[in-house]
Amino acid sequence: MIKPLRKAVLPVGGLGTRFLPATKAMPKEMLPVVDKPLIQYAIDEARAAGIEEFCLVTARGKDNLIDYFDAAPELEHTLRERGKTSTLAALEASSMNAGSLVAVRQNMPLGLGHAIWCARSFIGDDPFAILLPDDIVKSEKSCIAQLAEVYRKTGGNVVAVNEVPREMTKQYGVLATGEDDGRLVEVKGLVEKPEPADAPSNLTIIGRYVLTAEVLKPLSQLRTGVGGEVQLTDAMAQLIGKQPFHGLRYEGTRFDCGSKIGFLEAQIAMSIERPDLKDDVRAFLKKYV
Ligand code: G1P
Hints:
Blueprint: E1 7-11, E2 32-33, E3 36-37, H1 38-47, E4 53-58, H2 63-68, H3 73-81, H4 85-92, E5 101-105, H5 112-118, H6 120-123, E6 128-131, E7 135-138, H7 143-154, E8 157-163, E9 173-180, E10 184-192, E11 203-211, H8 216-220, H9 232-237, E12 245-248, E13 253-256, H10 260-271, H11 278-288
Parallel strand pairs: 1-4, 1-6, 4-5, 8-12
Antiparallel strand pairs: 2-3, 6-11, 7-13, 8-11, 9-10, 10-12
This protein binds 1-O-phosphono-alpha-D-glucopyranose.
């Protein structure tokens, strides 16, 4: 029987050095795109896939990410009294049901694989999604919901993939591919951040995964890879051949909000279709371009 997907792990331990000084006293995941922090986009996307249990893998200086998900009774009361129903709804999306958010500390910055391993008690034996909140995926259907559909069909692991220019493979986990129907591609191998000449393809992993708990076994060895870090990609590679493993060319657009240019593009993309903003945004874009 295929276990239902109910859990998500969100690694949020990174320092956010690319956005200093903005991130000097505030987690980068709290940076807003239009009027929602990055972390909220990831939570909304996971909830749209039916996920209701969340684990934040945090680090020092990241505590107000947890505070963000608290209920805010005074604020809610005031908004209700003032009849601000849409603001109230937005605010409610930022609070969690009792017990559905846990946080674990990543005590040392040893890499993404290590961060996921830190969530092992939360994961237990269950399948789980991983969302890297630096990535926003704008799509009709939630990207994680698209992956969840594949998981339910195959019972195995699935990662969201993008085609990138060859020279960019060294920024990503890269797939060696097997059967490929143009949408779903069988994963035959995985390499973390290869040089373009060594990359087995130009299909790269974005920050969205649905994995089985089996990945915790190779992770528990805490073997270091590229950059001296414990790489999730290396642990996932150990599952190939033992369990189904696929890449999904998801429908949607990914914005790399970990980079300045991706973050700026996301601001435009997420505001230009909003009924309350679109006319003004179009007008000022014309003014500047
Ligand atoms: C991580 C993963 C990499 C993946 C990328 C997606 O790298 O290690 O495999 O392609 O996220 O954003 P990072 O961006 O943390 O260097």
